[in-house]
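pinning this so it doesn't scroll away 📌
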Amino acid sequence: MSLDQPHTNGAPRDAGVAVAQRIRANRMQMSPAMEKIAGLLLDHPTAPLDLSITELAQQAGTSAATVTRFCRVIGYAGYVPLRVGVAADMGRGDVTSSWHTDLGRSFDPDDPAERVLEALLDTHLRSLRETATSADLEQVTRIAARIATCEHLDIYGIGGSAVMATELAARLYRIGINVHAWSEVHDGLTSAAIHGGGCVAIGISNTGRTLETEQMLAQARSSGAFTVALSNRGDSPLARLADEHLLTATPDEYLQPDELSAKHSQLFVLDLLYVLVAQQNFPRTTTKLAASAMAVGPHRRPPGRPGRGSGGSRAAKEPARRPA
């Protein structure tokens, strides 16, 4: 078996072979995109210890999927085993160091469930509190007013941020906003290109460094749309290109960009934005919500209705008789 064949359990075939040695031994079978990753890791051997897979891909000018394929070519099952290999090469890590890099420093692999629960609760609560404290309510109200009166709203998000975009779009659509959520860059660019001055575009990215989201928001702005960025860094590329930036908080204990406490902060800001948009045109909001509630009402079981197999009076089980 060659170095490029990982074990099925995720461990490399020969843990004694250094990462740099693996890269050099397998360069002949690498694609041009993988060559970029190889060059980056040979120049900066500790990069995987400091960067997420998405950040490494961006620095190499490629994709996270290509990084995963690169890991397999040099004998690792994925990015986490590669990190373990790099840590071992540097003489400053083991499986625990990789755990801390990927899942955070608030708890260890052998912590009891109670400790994990407490750490997670503390992290999520602090994320929400810090986000609320830093919120500029005048700014959010100003953005809500633009959305409430816009011709069309685009919301862009990739990966986990796509879930946030879809959630906000669904809620705003129910209250009469002409809105679409885009998670595929070609579709998003197509929509952004036909925007005008009466349109609004929102880009969601926790790090603010998701290339596809940047591209879609930049296209919308160049087309004349009013643009908004939602991220946890005010100095991120996404924040810099937008007309307005909404800030969310992420505790330092977590290094993984997709940590759920970051998502909760995003949802908190988006929920605030939704309510403020709804307030802008209260009659329209209540009319739309009442209409949608009536449409889905027949598909909901009435409260207190006995389920199948449950007890109940004879009158509840027998159909009512029509009067003669």
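📌 and the second one:
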Amino acid sequence: MEVMTKTQLIEEALSDAISYQDYRALTEKHALEGTNTGQEITDALANYTLLNHKRMKRLDKTLKISPEMRQQVENYDRKVTWLVLTESWCGDAAQTMPMMQKFADLNKSIDFKVILRDEHLELMDEFLYNGGRSIPKLIAIDTTTREVIGNWGPRPSQATQLVDDYKRTHGSLTPEFKEDLQVWYNKDKGQNTARDLIKLLK
């Protein structure tokens, strides 16, 4: 079988990609049916999908961008495609994708697209985090040249630090730590994600 180049993998992914609104509709459909996206269907992943649907619905309405950041986003003038690999059960994606859409809403130069990780594992393997297929993964692509100009994920920078520090000390993430991370997200209200995305635009 012919091995595809990164550029070919991106082209293939872009032809499969859907809008954030369509992804939200897909997540809602799975939430209502008690299922989830991805290769593995389990009750736990279905429950996370339901939780994420409710979370994104709330964040879509409540997230705010400061006037300073808003101006920086509005002034961005390079046509860029933000291609995000995710699955419906991913909690970090539910916390961060609504902010990505807020940015895209502010600037027509930012085209925000979504693909499912398990349908694009070869592309995912080009953007591993610490050797793992961690999601969400945002790939920033120059819309005109198709050049990859940056990537982000799987979490906001501060949350990544918290997770990495915890793993270094304890080996793996406990349910208690995951609850603490949830509290962190609730307090942060998407601001760390917004700051990271501003850096990505630069």
